[in-house]
What we know:
Structural class: mainly alpha
CATH architecture of the largest domain: Orthogonal Bundle
CATH topology of the largest domain: Rna Polymerase Sigma Factor, Chain: A
Largest sheet: none
Distance between the termini: 28 Å
Order of helices and strands: HHHHHHHHHHH
Number of helices: 11
Strand content: under 5%
Oligomer: single chain
Helix content: over 70%
Amino acid sequence: xxxxxxxxxxxxxxxxxxxxxxxxxxxxxxxxxxxxxxxxxxxxxxxxxxxxxxxxxxxxxxxxxxxxxxxxxxxxxxxxxxxxxxxxxxxxxxxxxxxxxxxxxxxxxxxxxxxxxxxxxxxxxxxxxxxxxxxxxxxxxxxxxxxxxxxxxxxxxxxxxxxxxxxxxxxxxxxxxxxxxxxxxxxxxxxxxxxxxxxxxxxxxxxxxxxxx
Length: 213
């Protein structure tokens, strides 16, 4: 991810220097590519009508993010005004709006889950974070994982449980969580990382070692 200073330098070149426009644009695309997918994914998570089977969520997020990059990113960069906040915040707002619009345009029932209970869907993001994006679990295993993770999460102290809840249930960024909990960003990152590690360790202790290695 680009630093805020580097992003500002590149956006200035893109908006004001025709000779540097193409190179600046390519660097902005490369620098924000992963971030755009993350914002898209978070928007899908928190959209209450989009009960997506999480094994298809990553593909959906990438499809929507790619559409945004191809169809809207150049215009979004052109319209960026420093008075609206940081470039990162501006891009996040535009990506989120694009994702919501994309959801509304999908055929009715496109995102209906098939045999996925509410608790399983709610825990999809946490399961993916703890177990990994690539895992071989069958549907009944995912449902079992959701049940186990719910119990393990309830056993965590507030120090770890609340940041994880805000991250995966509310779709908040690290910075937003830090503001909500009135904690330093570094502390929140550490809490989420440690909380995830604890859940992974406790899953392993319950016999999920093979799947989590």
